[in-house]
Backbone:
């Protein structure tokens, strides 16, 4: 590999981090059931310990996104204790995700519910989450809402939009100078007729209505088939409204499959739009990269290591696009050569450079193999197996 290419890859890797979700380490399933793993994390401490392993072997996942109800249960550890536990395991707490969808009170929605007490409960929980974020030193409060309706005529769509504007504005007022609100959109599920924040345009308008520290979060699984996600990314960048990502891959809907397992070229194109923007503007916008996957069948820690390595590879490939050449070819309407700028960068095998980068950073060249050899998973299965067995009726 030419020295210049290697240098570009190293620079890209030096500046690349991706956050991992605490919920990726616990037992999760589909709505038809769970297949329990003996080594799955059963407590917040265990999730952070597993996340620490991912960072230890990859060197690119120093922060962990947490879900408030799942990671700070009532009567459980305080925000400070959770932050200290993260520290013990070599990671930091990242985005705080409020949960305004699980409690019974949210049957008709949260910030847009027709019930004032549900709206109040949702806002209070979001405000509590902002306080938690202050204690854990987290910049981002990441909001996803299930609000919507299942049948035509059953909800006042315009009124609900107004309620969202009000609620988000009230939340925004509580942010410190260094905090941000990220507004995530999703077209359907669990609501199947209308979802209040269904696409990036709705998220953009609501974020603008909330205030200057609110940005849009793009979850790659939250789009209709064939939607051009990199175009959405380019537009959000141009509007200074791209706050971050939830990365995962999909074949049908919000499948939460491993990043790049179905369409790695799409992830490359997303990274390319960001890096092309940076090259043109000489500006690096604060875009949070986060994984949003929780695996039912694959071993969870290994899967997260696999995902992080894939993200590094695709980011490094995108960094290899020759931007000056691309700009020239686009200007000259040289369609074939412009497209080749992307294709040839995507075709480069960056893995040898990635291995070398790891070696110089004192990281294992083959993180998956090294993790497997460490015996961590077997130990975790021994320690947690009994508790996981208790979590389901039948267990093999
Ligand atoms: C919803 O599908 C979502 O993408 C939201 O980001 C949630 O916080 C996350 O998955 C976990 O359920
Ligand atoms: Mn998500």
Residues:
């Amino acid at each position: 590999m030419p020295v210049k290419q290697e240098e570009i890859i190293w620079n890209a890797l030096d500046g690349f981090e991706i956050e991992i979700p605490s919920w990726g380490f616990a037992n999760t399933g589909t709505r038809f059931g769970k297949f329990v793993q003996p080594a799955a994390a059963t407590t917040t401490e265990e999730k952070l310990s597993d996340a620490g392993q991912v960072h230890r072997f990859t060197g690119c996942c120093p922060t962990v996104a947490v879900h408030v109800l799942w990671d700070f249960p009532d009567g459980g550890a305080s925000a400070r204790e959770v932050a200290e536990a993260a520290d013990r395991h070599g990671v930091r707490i990242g985005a705080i995700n409020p949960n305004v969808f699980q409690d019974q009170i949210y049957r008709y929605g949260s910030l847009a519910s027709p019930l004032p007490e549900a709206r109040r409960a949702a806002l209070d929980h979001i405000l509590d989450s902002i306080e938690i974020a202050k204690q854990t030193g987290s910049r981002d409060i990441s909001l996803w809402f299930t609000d919507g309706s299942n049948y035509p005529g059953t909800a006042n769509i315009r009124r609900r939009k107004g309620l969202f504007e009000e609620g988000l504005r009230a939340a925004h007022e509580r942010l410190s100078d260094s905090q941000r609100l990220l507004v995530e959109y999703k077209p359907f599920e669990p609501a199947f007729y209308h979802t209040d924040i269904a696409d990036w345009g709705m998220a953009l308008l609501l974020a603008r209505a909330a205030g200057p520290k609110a940005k849009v979060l793009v979850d790659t699984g939250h789009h209709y088939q064939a939607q051009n996600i990199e175009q959405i990314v380019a537009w959000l960048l141009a509007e200074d409204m791209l706050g971050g990502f939830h990365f995962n891959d999909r074949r049908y809907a919000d499948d939460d499959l491993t990043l790049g397992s179905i369409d790695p070229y799409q992830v490359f194109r997303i990274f390319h739009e960001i890096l092309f923007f940076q090259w043109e503007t000489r500006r690096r916008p604060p875009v949070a990269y986060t994984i949003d996957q929780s695996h039912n069948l694959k071993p969870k820690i290994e899967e997260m290591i696999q995902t992080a390595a894939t993200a590094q590879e695709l980011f490094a490939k995108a960094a290899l696009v020759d931007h000056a050449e691309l700009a020239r070819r686009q200007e000259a309407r040289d369609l074939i050569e412009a497209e080749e700028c992307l294709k040839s960068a995507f075709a480069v095998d960056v893995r040898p450079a990635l291995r070398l980068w790891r070696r110089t950073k004192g990281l294992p060249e083959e993180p998956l193999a090294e993790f497997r050899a460490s015996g961590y998973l077997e130990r975790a299965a021994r320690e947690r197996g009994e508790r996981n067995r208790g979590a389901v009726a039948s267990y093999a």
